[in-house]
Specification:
Helices cover 55% and strands 4% of the residues. The protein is mainly alpha-helical. The chain folds into two domains: 94 residues, Tyrosine recombinase, N-terminal domain (DNA polymerase, domain 1, Orthogonal Bundle); 171 residues, Intergrase catalytic core (hpI Integrase, Chain A, Orthogonal Bundle). It has a three-stranded antiparallel sheet with strand order 1-2-3, with no helix packed on it. Strand 1 and strand 2 form a beta hairpin. The longest helix has 20 residues. It is globular, with a radius of gyration of 25 Å. 24% of the residues are buried.
Length: 314
């Protein structure tokens, strides 16, 4: 990168990427899904470097990264994500004294205006549950309704739900133990409705092939329910209910549950705990209001000026 800079050791870009992930996996700094996504992006970047005869990290220049970003046919949000992935990788290279500076950090980030996120209101959620209870296959009804409740009532992530094992659900103490990001274990209380749904599912689960397995949620083939299968279950249920939003997956239900809790005036710190967010700014994305709420708030504003005018008249 610089004429006078000498890297701490000789290593290829590919080897540096592998060492980067070895460190992150050893320290459990990244979740398995984050590792998968970042590995895909960095391998794509490695192919670009190899195509341009760049074999060592110290030979990567700022213009290399800019040319790489220009070569990608992706939207602004994806480009911003890629820059952050590269920034994390170059942080590692700097720490290892393989490069002098984090060149990805100096690249101007594209402005990305997030579209307003959809969420379901109570009427839409009720319609979703009723439609699923009416039209889903008999063996899948109780499983699917329980899935929906875990997303909307206690705002779990898909990864947290599909990793649930039988002993994680403590019916007797009305709580559930979940594995968060970075393998942090936390417990969440259960209400009577969710407990009833668990018990209903456990009864029908006995009919599933592979019911002796420890996974709480099984597919129709008797195997652990996968992420893509959960996405299909939720999107199909929304389609049957005639509900069309910008995003149709389980995150819509999780987002809806958190948004409705915030709208009802629930404690934002407790909502943050349910969502498993470490940063409150992440939780703020789940705070919404509609036009009627804004009108009502303005109507409730105290009439200070008018009161002052009355006192002057007296």
């Amino acid at each position: 990168m610089y004429k006078d800079f000498v890297p701490n050791r000789s290593i290829t870009v590919y080897e540096a990427i592998e060492e980067y992930f070895d460190e992150k996996e050893a320290t459990e700094y990244l979740s398995s899904s984050s590792v998968y996504n970042r590995r895909y992006e960095l391998k794509r970047f490695h192919r670009f470097c190899a195509k341009n005869n760049i074999s060592n990290p110290e030979n990567i220049h700022k213009n290399t990264v800019i040319s790489y970003l220009k070569s990608l046919q992706v939207n602004r949000a994806s480009k911003l994500h890629i820059i952050y992935v590269l920034k994390g990788f170059f942080d590692f290279l700097v720490d290892e004294e393989l490069v002098l500076d984090n060149i990805a950090d100096s690249i101007k980030k594209p402005k990305n205006y997030q579209p307003k996120t959809d969420f379901l209101n109570y009427a839409e959620l009720e319609k979703l549950y009723q439609t699923e209870a009416k039209y889903a296959q008999r063996k899948a009804i109780d499983r699917n309704l329980l899935l929906f409740s875990l997303f909307t009532d206690i705002c779990l992530r898909v990864s947290e739900v599909i990793q649930l094992q039988m002993n994680d659900v403590r019916i007797e103490t009305k709580e559930i133990w979940i594995v968060r990001k970075r393998n942090k274990v936390e417990k969440i209380p259960l209400n009577e409705d969710i407990i009833a749904k668990f018990l209903n599912w456990y009864e029908i689960r006995k009919e599933y092939k592979g019911s002796e397995q420890d996974w709480v949620f099984l597919s129709s083939h008797g195997k652990q329910l996968k992420r893509r299968q959960v996405y299909y279950i939720v999107s199909k249920a929304l389609e049957r209910a005639g509900i069309v939003k910008r995003k149709q997956g389980p995150h819509l239900l999780r987002h809806s549950g958190a948004s409705l809790k915030a709208k009802a005036g629930e404690n934002i710190v407790m909502i943050q705990y349910l969502l498993g967010h470490e940063n409150m700014n992440t939780t703020r994305r789940y705070l919404h209001f509609d036009w009627k709420d804004l009108q009502d708030m303005v109507e409730r504003s105290p009439q200070i000026k008018k009161e002052e005018e009355k006192s002057e008249i007296k």
